[in-house]
Design a protein that fits this description.
Structural class of chain B: alpha/beta
Strand order of the largest sheet of chain B: 6-7-8-3-9-10-12-11
Order of helices and strands of chain A: EEEHEEHEHHHHHEHEHEEHHHEEHH
Number of strands of chain A: 12
CATH topology of chain A: Rossmann fold
Oligomer: heterodimer
Order of helices and strands of chain B: EEEHEEHEHHHEHEHEEHHHEE
Distance between the termini of chain A: 41 Å
Largest interface: A-B, 49 and 44 residues
Helix content of chain A: 25-40%
Strand content of chain B: 15-25%
Number of strands of chain B: 12
Largest sheet of chain B: 8 strands, mixed
CATH class of chain A: Alpha Beta
Number of domains of chain A: 1
Number of helices of chain B: 10
Chain lengths: ~350, ~325
């Protein structure tokens, strides 16, 4: 089949999608709540950017906004989303439709709820080719089977005639990936794509995503709470807390020498293989309710470094080294604190070739 | 503090489910746990890891008596609960408690925290005299990191992590010898998960309770467990001290599991290429002949289809069920 899209614009490193001070707001009028409170990020062409955060951080909502799929009641309250030079934040549903699938595509944590239980899997994939690419019934069906082969579904010809419930979780996620990639989108947003899957199947799916990404020259946004998955698969990472970006940068550097106390806390919360059984340095307390976000730095009530300034002044996201940024008043101290993570001695060689 | 008699032993346990579904499968049995032995010493933590469908939750539920065993024994001290008298069962039932994955589903939303924690004392009178209930509720709340002023609140007024604390307090209320934690921290966010893991550790130090810790999260199990059993399709394929099993796994399945689990600092370690297993877990309705893992195993040979490997000692306290077992520290995730 032929690709009728215009050639990609911009230089290879130009962001394919960028968010500028994006605010996502629940409700209208007096009782509104900002769930995402000014997020800026760039996703360069061909890279994988991970958005990390705990529940309520706004990471999934941010992802949905990039697909024009905000849940009812949530609107873009400010800022912009620019995809390949085109502002998207105020598109109507009718304007979004031709973009989804062709330009941007998304896979979700739970593939079963994203598939129609009453339609054979092959027909659901073929529908994409028929309705969106204008292929005939026969050709669409062949393409569907072909794309199932591409995502590693064995016996695809026969499996195309099965219903979603007859597939295992891993196989369903493969079907979702096949559908998401069927129209050759340029950006794939994967929201916790392996969270519901077993460890060995997780490895298969992440490997598949990375392989398809490379084969197609895709750009990918990976939403995850799992720092391990992020460290294996993402070029750069954006850490969110309470609706804001608190830190961003190349994933290896962020995960070796975090520049925000929240990132440090997250990493210390993960059991350390070198100290089994030891007490974990858990972050005290819990993430704030979006209706009552603390003053100043939203993380200050849980932060071991918090001082007076943190309670009053909202820290801006500012550069802390090449391609890195942190929203902490004392970011330099956090990075400079060599003892902030075990084995930081070999961190130097990592940041050496930054 | 190891003791001569383990608090809990599981001997050659088999657990079946009867299918109720389709027209032709009605009445057929699925063997979810197919011959498992387990020893839980006093004050220790035994981890059980495996993927969905391996039977680990069925095993957990059978241990606490929520499911009947098809054959084999669950021994509390020296007493087999299945054959014990009603009175003995009733007396020993509090000794094994359970904490579930979903704290939202396991607490009655209408009850206050005080009622939730004191309810077991109504069911098992004699543990705490009624006039001591309030004081004991306060003590338990404090033990799990909540405040006694919160005792009049209901579950919806707490966060997920706090609700799991309530579940732990409720399990502790009857002074159990063993708490079975079935994916007890899996639904929690990373930072909250760390708090609960620390809590479980402190509670153990304080009360000497043992844990059977069932989880799919290898990093968490390695962190908490003294010994660990790796389960696949209803059987243990490898079992032993956690530092042995996770330090130098010898079963191909354990090696694959450990190599597949991503760690935050993978690049720091001289790890071999990860093993990505083909295929998926076969249906327990029709497990493969011979070794149950052979259909996905990178070492499988003819022999594996014919002879089912037994769990055999490889080193002191390290058992493996594989014809071609070979300990390999490169796949280990300890130190």
């Amino acid at each position: 089949m032929t690709d009728t899209r215009p050639p990609h614009g911009g230089t290879p490193t130009a962001p394919l999608i960028s968010l500028t001070d994006l605010r996502l707001t629940l409700g209208r009028g007096a009782g509104t709540v900002d769930l995402v409170r000014g997020v800026s990020l760039d996703v360069p062409q061909g890279t994988t950017v991970a958005i990390v955060g705990e529940s309520g951080s706004g990471k999934s909502l941010t992802a949905l906004s990039m697909m024009g799929l905000l849940p009812p009641g949530v609107t873009v309250g400010g800022g912009d989303i620019v995809f390949d030079g085109t502002p998207m934040a105020r598109l109507t549903e009718r304007e979004w439709q031709p973009l989804r699938g062709r330009q941007l595509s998304m896979i979700f944590q739970d593939p079963l709820s994203a598939l129609n239980p009453c339609i054979r899997v092959g027909d659901q994939i073929a529908e994409m080719f028929r309705l969106r690419a204008g292929l005939g019934r026969r050709e669409a069906r062949d393409r569907a089977v072909e794309s199932m082969v591409e995502v590693g579904i064995p016996d695809a010809e026969r499996r195309a005639r099965s219903y979603p419930h007859e597939f295992s979780g891993g196989m369903r996620q493969r079907v979702m990936i096949a559908m998401a990639l069927s129209l050759q989108p340029r950006l794939l947003i994967a929201d916790e794509p392996t969270t519901a899957l077993d460890v060995t199947v997780q490895a298969q799916i992440m490997r598949l995503l990375v392989a398809r990404k490379q084969a197609r020259g895709l750009t990918m946004i990976l939403i995850s709470h799992d720092l391990g998955v992020v460290s294996r698969s993402a070029d750069s990472v954006v850490v969110m807390y309470a609706g804001r970006v608190v830190e961003s940068g190349p994933s290896r550097e962020v995960l070796t020498r975090p520049a925000h106390p929240y990132t440090v806390g997250l990493m210390r919360s993960v059991p350390d293989r070198r100290r089994p059984g030891a007490a974990l340095e858990a972050i005290p307390g819990q993430p704030p309710d979006p209706r009552t976000v603390p003053s100043g730095c939203a993380f200050h009530p849980r932060c071991p470094m918090a001082r007076d300034r943190c309670r009053t002044e909202v820290p801006a996201l500012r550069p802390v080294g090449p391609a890195r940024a942190s929203a902490c008043h004392f970011a330099d101290e956090v990075v400079g604190d060599g003892a902030n993570l075990p084995e930081t001695n070999d961190a130097s060689e990592v940041s050496g070739h930054a | 503090m190891p003791e001569s008699t383990p608090v809990l032993r599981v001997k050659d346990l088999h657990v079946d489910y009867r299918l109720s579904g389709g027209l032709f499968s009605r009445g057929r049995r699925v063997r979810a746990v197919a011959g498992v032995d387990l020893v839980v010493p006093a004050g220790s933590t035994v981890g059980i890891v495996g993927e969905s469908g391996c039977g680990k939750s069925t095993l957990a539920r059978t241990i606490v008596g929520l499911l009947p065993a098809a054959s084999g024994q669950v021994l509390l001290g020296d007493v087999d609960l299945a054959t014990a008298s009603r009175a003995t069962r009733r007396r020993l039932r509090p000794d094994v408690q359970m904490v579930f994955q979903d704290p939202y589903a396991s607490l009655n939303p209408w009850m206050t925290v005080r009622d939730l924690i004191s309810e077991p004392w109504q069911i098992h009178p004699g543990i705490v005299p009624r006039e001591r209930w309030d004081a004991e509720v306060d003590r338990l709340l404090e033990l799990v990191g909540l405040r006694s002023s919160q005792r009049g609140l209901r579950p919806h007024q707490f966060s997920g992590g706090q609700r799991q604390r309530i579940c732990i307090a409720r399990a502790l209320a009857v002074r159990p010898k063993v708490i079975v934690c079935d994916e007890a921290v899996s639904a929690l966010d990373v930072s909250i998960r760390a708090q609960i893991l620390n809590l479980l550790r402190d509670v153990q130090a304080e009360t000497g309770v043992s844990y059977v810790f069932v989880s799919h999260d290898l990093g968490v199990v390695r962190h908490v467990a003294d010994t660990v059993a790796v389960m696949y399709l209803g059987r243990f394929v490898e079992q032993g001290r956690t530092d042995e099993v996770f330090g130098a796994p010898a079963h191909p399945y354990t090696q694959a599991l450990l190599s597949a689990a991503p760690a935050v600092d993978d690049w720091r370690h001289d790890r071999p290429e990860e093993i990505v297993l083909g295929g998926e877990v076969p249906s327990p309705l029709a497990p493969p002949s011979g070794c149950r893992f052979r259909t996905r195993c990178f070492k499988a040979q003819d022999r594996c289809a014919q002879i089912e490997p037994e769990l055999t000692d490889r080193a002191a306290g390290h058992q493996v069920a594989c014809h071609f077992a070979e300990a390999d520290a490169r796949y280990g995730i300890v130190g």
